[in-house]
Design goal:
Chains: A mainly alpha, B alpha+beta, C mainly alpha
Oligomer: heterotrimer
Shape of chain A: globular
Strand content of chain C: under 5%
Order of helices and strands of chain C: HHHHHHHHHHHH
Number of domains of chain C: 1
Largest sheet of chain C: none
Number of helices of chain C: 12
Structural class of chain C: mainly alpha
Largest interface: A-C, 71 and 67 residues
Number of helices of chain A: 15
Chain lengths: ~325, ~525, ~300
């Protein structure tokens, strides 16, 4: 297993190299630059060019890449132009909100999904099953920002019971922290739930059709007991896969929701940095996000082994 | 076991929702309570408390010298002060200076500083601080570079500073008082430690000091207890300034509907940059009030140096089809939100207001336009309009302009970029023909930044001569004929077509009193009765 | 919906029940397909008849009638330029479907080529799969935003940006299927007979990989429409004022508290087309690949439709 982990970690290197080259070239091909942003709306070309050379942005592109990659190799992701702090610091400041949001969304998603998936599997073929499946179909078809806008309209403006934007850190208290994350958490969670509920339902049904289940049923074991003790356990693997994959996706992919709900997470940091052309932050964050993504997937793969010892990790 | 799991799941979900809405009711109750209270707050301005401001963008820096970014201006003016500032009629009045004198040759400006003015770090303001700051401003700011070449500030004694000019400049004081980019006075140490990309610490003499800058979330300013106020009554951005609330939070909310929801739910006390369409929500809400102030000039600029629009006839043709009413209603809904005038400066500033050439404004004359097109030899070439959705007024103008031009048979391509891209594309000076642009409101037209290098702006000896004439005039009265001639020039040579002036809509909670907008929002002397 | 394997040992009562379930699930599957197809048909019809369905143009402004609610003149109301929302929504549907289709076609084609080549040549495999890993780890929406920023706002660039995002997921699926096919006896036999590898890849392996490709394509179609909408919603998609559904939602967001119709109608259109595609895809999967285990799911971008 140790060897497996090492190999997985080594495979990070080419991935990171690809990402580094892609992100650097994209961002430097993009028109617009931080010097113009810093000087404000009314700056003219001469002033901008002047500031560019002060920032070292007039150097040839390969030289800038060399400087950056050398920094990265020596563990320095650079300094943000607008945040006045190192990129790593800016990134880890933003990781907290994103993680909180992800955990809440995931919790809502899994809880709702298990509830719906199990109910649907138990009542398969009935109207309940169909409505659960229709719900989940709607859930995976609705764009997150649309659902977000609708929830904001309902809760934030009509009912006025939850704040519609912003963020409070956990240090401000549990409730203040949670209340800002409930709406965005529901948006992401419902979409998660739709996905996982389908998975739960079908994998329970698959397990129920296995021979050992039939034997159990034939022996007169109650279906409820079968579902909760055996089926759920066995179907945990596919569910875990989805959770793992979407967890990675959530950490990095909540950009739209973080922007809509004004949550200072990693996604918002990158989106904002793109719009102010804060090169080093974009480059550094994307690299760190890549590392996080690979790690999360590694953890999920390791968890498989714990849940189901039959899975051999060495076989990719 | 089964029941347990189910119960736990249900309980978890229910808890989330119930807790959400239960506390919501609490919040609502509290709000109703405060709004039904008798209104002593209204008569007797309540001191202390917090002001939460829903602000559209984060400033790119807190160095007022280097940037013309609006957010930089609005936030830094609470922290720093200038030698002179503007009263409510945009006339120059002293601020950190006790008084000032101008020499007869108009080349030296002597400022006597007020004594005992403290910086946020406890140090007293002295001439050396002013000298360091002014010279940095002259060297780095767009105003300084364009207008004060060769000028230098010198220390005469501990409390006296002389600004020595190379040539007389009519608007010296006006620009020193201008908030964009502000000639803010920093302590000398801050200037010494700064590089050209910005100062490292943010220390001023203003009524509020920087407490915390939480990137992309908020800037928290607190009351500066040792602030030394002037004794004259408050007047515009000058006179007696007092931090009447203890804490100011500029909360950065890019999304307008989120700012709107925030002020409706009581999360913010003030929300800036509300669009005119959403103003209905403010108007319809008994807890809120609308505050209108001059927003800025909006015009579309031609590329007079490259491509089709080097031909003045073509510029005149596009100008002839312009229907200011259509554009203004599309962009600003109702006449209360814009000023329809051919003058570069609002009528409220009679020194600079001029109606010269107004017969060429908003002609809405398709026949004339078509004829001019023909004279210009226009032959179906594609006209490229560049714009951005980051500034929605500009985008709205572009969309209407496109329709107007297509109605007289001009082929138009509208390219929409994000702001940084647009800025670079325009600066390249080629590949585009027209762009709409708004410039923050100024009380004199000389201050508009486009004269000094707006992208594609017509290069003309006549224009340079007029501007130079205004620069070196003895007084505004002496400059008057030139002002009219320049205004006439704008409408006949058409370097750009002015559409009108917008108003800025700010939403205030009814509890907020004393809010002002002098070339941008001002939060000192503002109370929150909540 | 679930696939069942018949067992001989099961008691008859259980088997009967099993059969009934099978019938139900088949029925359900067919219904999914038909239901999805009907929705898609409606969408395509709407998009096709757009120009004659309404007397207005999608860009035609009317400042006097701005932000008017739904009425007989304007079925879905008007937007902040007085443009007819119904007209724009129908044209928007057109653009969304066109973009989705183009992305699906390009991503499927290139993804298939990359997948097949990777499966057959280990050197290419190493290169392509590392690139795919890199692109996978890169958050998709952010990748698309950056590509759009670099390329500039043109509809063609949206297609390029989205295709780049979806190629890896197709490539992986085709590759894994092709790896299985490669080991089949008849392919080995072909090798033994001296058939050129070119011929083996394109004539024998490619058709075998078609059914997972078709299933994956319907999802990519759906996800690319959603991603385009999200891009436009963040201001980086189809350049406005073109009436893409995402652009309309972007415009609607600013006035969501005054003009619900600017959000609700384009939003329902978007939901409708994505729902149709998802239903259709599920139905297709049940018909084409009844043994496919739901367990595996697609990879991140294949199955998860919300970016």
């Amino acid at each position: 297993m140790g060897g497996y982990v090492v190999r997985r970690l080594l495979s990070l290197v080419p991935v990171l190299l690809v990402v580094a080259i892609v992100v650097f070239s994209i961002i430097h091909l993009t028109p617009g630059d931080p010097a113009a942003i810093l000087l404000g709306e009314e700056a003219n070309k001469a002033e901008i060019d002047d500031m560019k050379s002060k920032m070292g942005l007039d150097k040839p592109i390969y030289e800038q890449f060399g400087i950056w990659i050398w920094g990265v190799l020596s563990g320095n992701l650079g300094q943000s132009i607008f945040l006045h702090k190192p990129v790593t610091e800016a990134f880890f400041e933003r990781l907290g909100p994103t993680l909180s949001l992800t955990v809440i969304a995931q919790a809502i998603g899994v809880a709702l999904a298990l509830l719906l998936g199990i109910t649907a599997a138990k009542r398969r073929g009935t109207a309940i099953d169909q409505s659960v499946m229709s719900f989940s179909m709607l859930g995976i078809s609705i764009p997150s920002f649309l659902l977000g806008s609708l929830l904001v309209m309902l809760f934030g403006v009509k009912l006025r019971c939850l704040p519609v934007a912003g963020y409070q850190p956990l240090s401000a208290g549990l409730w203040p922290h949670l209340k800002y994350l409930i709406l965005p958490g529901i948006v992401l969670g419902v979409i998660q739930a739709a996905l996982i509920a389908r998975m739960t339902r079908s994998s329970i049904l698959d397990v129920l059709s296995e021979n050992f289940m039939k034997t159990a049923k034939a022996k007169g074991v109650k279906e409820k007991t079968i579902i909760y003790t055996h089926a759920l356990r066995v179907s945990f693997i596919p569910i875990l896969t989805v959770i793992g994959e979407s967890f990675g996706g959530l950490v990095t992919g909540a950009a739209v929701i973080e922007t809509l709900f004004n949550i200072p997470g990693v996604g918002q940091l990158i989106v904002n940095s793109i719009s102010r052309r804060d090169y080093s932050v974009i480059q550094g964050s994307v690299l760190l996000v890549t590392v996080a993504y690979v790690f999360i997937n590694l953890i999920v793969d390791l968890l498989y082994g714990l849940v189901d010892p039959r899975i051999r990790l060495s076989k990719k | 076991m089964t029941i347990k799991i189910k119960l736990a799941l249900f309980a978890f979900l229910a808890l989330l929702l119930i807790s959400g809405c239960a506390s919501g009711e609490q919040g609502k109750g509290a709000q109703e309570g405060s709004s039904t209270e008798p209104a002593p707050a209204n008569q007797n301005a309540k001191k202390g408390g917090t002001l939460n401001i829903g602000y559209p963008t984060q400033p790119v820096t807190l160095d007022a010298h280097i940037s013309s970014n609006t957010a930089v201006k609005d936030i830094t003016r609470e922290i720093y002060e200038q030698l002179v500032t503007l009263d409510k009629n945009a006339q120059v009045i002293p601020m950190l200076a006790e008084s000032y004198e101008i020499s007869d040759d108009k080349l030296s400006y002597t400022f006597h500083l007020r004594r005992g003015v403290k910086f946020h770090n406890g140090k007293e303001l002295k001439a050396e601080d002013v000298v360091a700051s002014l010279n940095r401003w002259i060297r780095l700011s767009s105003h300084g570079k364009a207008n004060f070449a060769g000028a230098e500030a010198k220390e005469k004694d501990e409390y006296t500073v002389v600004l020595q000019l190379k040539t007389p400049f009519l608007l010296t004081l006006q620009l020193l008082a201008d908030p964009i980019p502000a000639a803010a006075i920093y302590p000398k140490e801050v200037v010494d430690a700064a590089d050209d990309k910005g100062i490292k610490t943010y220390i001023g003499t203003g009524p509020y000091r920087l407490e915390e800058w939480k990137q992309d979330q908020y800037i928290h300013l607190t009351k500066f207890n040792d602030y030394s106020a002037r004794t004259e009554p408050s007047d515009g951005a000058g006179g007696k300034k007092e931090a009447l609330v203890d804490d100011l939070y500029f909360r950065f909310v890019t999304d307008e509907s989120t700012r709107l929801a925030g002020i409706a739910s009581g999360e913010y006390d003030i929300a800036l940059n509300i669009s005119v369409d959403n103003e209905r929500q403010i108007e319809g809400n008994p807890d809120l009030q609308t505050f209108l102030s001059p927003g800025g000039l909006i015009a579309y600029f031609y590329n007079s140096n490259d491509g089709l629009f080097r031909n003045v006839k073509l510029r005149q043709a596009v100008n002839a089809i312009q229907n200011a009413d259509d554009i203004l209603t599309s962009a600003f809904r109702d006449p209360q939100f814009y000023v329809k005038t051919s003058s570069l400066v609002l009528p409220d500033y009679p020194n600079w207001y001029s109606e010269a050439g107004k017969e060429f404004y908003s002609q809405a004359n398709p026949e004339k336009a078509k004829q001019l097109l023909q004279e210009a030899g226009y032959n179906g070439e594609e006209v490229k309009i560049f714009t951005t959705r980051d500034y929605i007024d500009q985008y709205n103008v572009a969309v209407v302009l496109q329709q107007e031009l297509e109605s007289i048979g001009v082929k138009v391509k509208l390219d929409v970029y994000d702001w940084p891209t647009l800025q670079e594309k325009l600066a390249a000076g080629t590949g585009w023909d027209i762009y709409p642009m708004s410039y923050a409101f100024r009380p004199t037209f000389y201050q508009y930044a486009f004269w000094g290098g707006g992208a594609g702006l017509l290069k003309s000896p006549e224009l340079d001569e007029l501007l130079q004439g205004i620069r070196t005039s003895e007084s505004v009265e002496a400059a008057r004929p030139l002002i009219d001639r320049l205004q006439q020039f704008v409408w006949t040579e058409v370097p750009f077509s002015l559409i009108g002036h917008s108003k800025q809509v700010t939403a205030l909670s009814k509890n907020v009193q004393g809010f002002q907008n002098i070339l941008g929002p001002i939060f000192w002397n503002t109370t929150n009765g909540k | 919906m679930a696939a069942h394997s018949e067992t001989v040992t099961a008691p008859t009562a259980l088997r009967r029940r099993e059969r009934r379930q099978l019938a139900v699930s088949r029925f359900l599957a067919n219904r999914l397909l038909t239901f999805g197809a009907v929705i898609l048909l409606v969408v395509v019809l709407l998009a096709a008849i757009a120009p004659v369905a309404t007397p207005y143009g999608p860009l035609q402004i009317d400042p006097v009638n701005r932000l008017k609610g739904p009425s007989w003149q304007h079925l879905f109301g008007t937007d902040n330029f007085g443009r007819d929302v119904f007209t724009r929504a129908v044209y928007g549907l057109r653009i969304s479907v066109a973009v989705g289709f183009a992305v699906t076609a390009i991503a499927s084609l290139i993804g298939m080529i990359v997948g097949l080549l990777s499966a057959c040549y280990s050197v290419l495999d190493a290169i392509f799969m590392r690139i795919c890993d890199g692109l996978f780890a890169f958050p998709s929406i952010l990748l698309a935003i950056s590509i759009m920023a670099a390329l500039g706002p043109h509809p063609g660039n949206v297609v390029i940006a989205l295709s780049i995002i979806f190629i890896p997921s197709v490539a992986r699926i085709i590759r894994s299927k092709a790896l299985v096919v490669r080991e089949l006896t008849y392919i080995e036999a072909l090798h033994a007979q001296g058939a050129s590898s070119w011929r083996i890849i394109w004539i024998h392996m490619a058709p075998n990989a078609l059914s997972p490709l078709i299933i994956q394509s319907t999802y990519i179609f759906a996800v690319s429409i959603l991603t385009e909408a999200s891009l436009s919603f963040l201001g980086a998609g189809i350049p406005s004022p073109s009436p893409s559904l995402g652009n309309m939602l972007y415009d609607g967001k600013a006035v969501i508290y005054n003009a619900w119709w600017m959000t609700v109608f384009p939003g329902s259109f978007l939901l409708l087309v994505v729902l149709g595609l998802n239903l259709f895809g599920d139905g297709l999967r049940d018909v084409l690949d009844p043994r496919a285990s739901r367990m595996k799911g697609g990879r991140r971008r294949g199955n998860k439709t919300s970016p």
